[in-house]
Amino acid sequence: MTAMMIQVPPHCKHFAAALVEAVEVVARLAKVGRRAPDMLHAESGIATAIAKVECGAMADVLTSLDADGDEVIFDGKRWHSLGVMPTTYFTQAGPTTVERKLFRESGVHNGPTLDVVASRAGLVGDWTPAAAKAMAHLLQQGTGREAETTAHEVGRLPYSRSSFERVGHEVGRLYLGRRAEIDQRLTEAAAVPDGVRSVSVALDRVAVPMEELEIDGGEDGKDRLTRVWHMAHVGTVTLHDADGWAIATTRYACMPGGDIDELDGALQGDLVHLLTRRRGLRVVTLGDGAAEVRSRLDAIVDGVAKSAWDLLDYWHVAEKLALAAQAIAKGTSGKEIAARWKGWLLNLDDAPSRIREELSAHAGHKVVDDTLTYLDNHGHQMDYAAARREGLPIGSGNVEASCKSVVRMRMVRGGARWKHEPGDRVLHLRALAQSDRWNDGIAETLRPLKRTIRVAS
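RESULT FIELD:
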């Protein structure tokens, strides 16, 4: 047998021991002349062995961060060692146990202790940053139970449902604690892609099932928890090319009862930054006809964009007109009328007045009267033909899609009901992930956990 010697430094003892075990596993499975192994179990066995090697390597790295002396300076104070104690840290590959010193502030009895290893490594509690980040990502995608199942299938993060929920929510809490600062940093660091000619700001609302206490709501007169639907808000800032097609979208969300003004502020902050970085960008506000949505969009661009285009989402208008067309002409004829009106909207500057003139002949029908009022109130926000000539977007599809991808797919599930605070953590993490800001956002979130500690002289 040909032997291979690998030199491993003495301070990598955990890694070396695990590597020896992994070699034995592979050698047994790869033995020439034996019957073919069950590959499903063979690959699983190799993965388990390599995970132990990874855990061993992490144990050695973490051990290297321990203090050399028995006294350290942290946060301007002197701390003394309580002795060497074993502790378990949790990595992506699994738990790993090391021996490290534990410290307490000098002159303080029964005070809090200091884990130098955890502080220097920037751990989230006892969890490595990479493990915490991955667990939070799985939690923003699905429930804790689904995260546990997914992790088991891919052979990583061998932890329980409750661990995924606890760690994921802790990452969310850390992000929310500095969200305005982090979002600003992400916005300032983001490059404006070539080919961007316009930016749209859009708002929409979507119902979320919330848990509420119904006072004396049961038949027995006792209070009970109930499921009530309330509106969450979603906002987007989308960059568009010269033809109005979306290039990139940043998504924000706000739970029912949350700070909607803060969401508006984030949208406005992004807009200010973009207009500073790329002068000459055309600005478009998009949304449905709800009074709250329009007033908030107006406030976001007020004083920021001098000549913003205020447009009603084209598809909302088309749907409204289709109902009116069916009311005045059933069947195929109604569809033909709706198609003609949509063509006018896309190509004629006076489309709203033309459509109103046709509809006026059928006044007295409830649907028709509602549509006439709609045209009177919003006709000035239907300048689609001019917007198309300028290469601007006319549809709020990006925020509509965000309502689904950010909120409905995660928050609106069978039997789901949310309390505000845990829902807020998950929702904001999901908006971060759906904006392609996850890696930088979580790195910035966890950065302050890494602390400087020096050995006392």
